[in-house]
Amino acid sequence: MGANWIHGIERNPIYQIAEENGLLELRFKDKGLRHKNMFLTETGQEVNQKTVKECDFTYGLLLQQCEEFYQMGMFTPYDSVGEYLQYEIEEKLENFSEEERKLREMIFDQHLKQETVVSGCDDLYDISLSEFGCYEELPGVHYTIPPGFQSVLDILLSKVPEENILLNHSVKCIHWGGSNDNDSRVLVECENGEKYHAEHVIVTCSLGVLKASCDRMFDPPLPKDKHESIEKLGFGIVDRVNLFFDEPIVDLDVFRIELLWDDERYKEERNKDLSTSWFRKIYSFEAVNDNILSSRSRFQFMDA
Fold first, then answer.
1. What is the pLDDT of residues 49-80, one digit of tens each?
2. Which CATH number fits domain 28-140+234-302: 3.30.300, 2.60.420, 3.90.660, 1.10.10?
3. What is the Cα–Cα distance from 114 to 295, expressed in whole angstroms?
4. Quick one: CA dihedral 250, 112, 85, 70, positive or negative?
5. What's the confidence (pLDDT) of residue 102?
6. What is the pLDDT of residues 197-251, one digit of tens each?
7. Which of the two ends of the chain, N or C, has the fewest CB atoms closer than 10 A to its terminal CB?
């Protein structure tokens, strides 16, 4: 039920491994051409598909414009993606009646919540407009790995000799840049006293670990620019909510339920405390089965 997707197949080594070992399943294959996305308000009202498609088209063009600032080296009128999208959306909704404007605002807001998960941010005001287009998405269809990504790791691990994987060897310090004994480029010193020499070391610990220990983990200390980046970067929470029902609750042709929240009256509360309104950041549920719904949302920014 977790994240087990392969997004794009061209130049994708994970796809190659999964394909060669028979792990793949084409996404949505059981839905065929009949799969349906339902847009529902919090009162249960389903929104007309024509309105949804109009907003989808406009939003797609706006995101494309955001990417073009980087891709074409254009001057950016705003610092953040959030500022630019807010201005453009408000301008495009000026001539609608109050009721139609409100409905379209909720649809756009739903798309913006989804983009925070795609872009890995708490708020699109944290994303630089001038750099938004630098991300390159791999082309090709999307697949799922039904057994999960552990099956890919098992394949990779099977090619590594068991004695080459060391557990219970907490790293005390990484001596790099020719500063260690034996004149090796890198020396990894462990808490248990073991030492390992290497030409290169790849450090994959989390941002939180780096924030807590980078001052003592590296000898000599990391360059100033890397140290400042570690200090300034933040990390947040992306949670997956799975709902299991005893009976079918959606038709077989329903693929996703998109949630349109009226957040206007909750803004003040939301900014102060998410404990009573966290669910309003869930932007959609995917119908894994006719009685299983799965969602993911980015909830609260966390200072490390």
1. 999 999 999 999 999 999 999 999 999 999 99
2. 3.90.660
3. 11
4. negative
5. 93
6. 999 999 999 999 999 999 999 999 999 999 999 998 877 777 788 999 999 998 8
7. N
Chain segment 251-270, per-residue pLDDT in tens: 888 888 999 998 876 665 54
- How many beta carbons lie within 10 A of that of residue 27, not counting itself? 15
| pTM: predicted TM-score of the whole model, two decimal places | 0.76
Could you tell me which residues are beta bridge partners of residue 65? none
What torsion, rounded to 10 degrees, do the Cα atoms 272, 273, 278, 281 define?
Answer: 10
- Residue 235's CB is within 10 A of a number of other CB atoms, namely 15
Phi, psi (deg, nearest 5) at residue 174: -110, 110
| CA dihedral over 177, 183, 188, 192, signed as positive or negative | negative
Cβ atoms of 149 and 6 closer than 8 Å = no
* Burial of residue 84 (number of CB atoms within 10 Å: 0-12, 13-18, 19+): buried
Q: At what angle do helices 81-92 and 98-119 cross, to 10 degrees?
A: 160
CA dihedral (215, 128, 259, 256) in degrees, to 10, reads -90
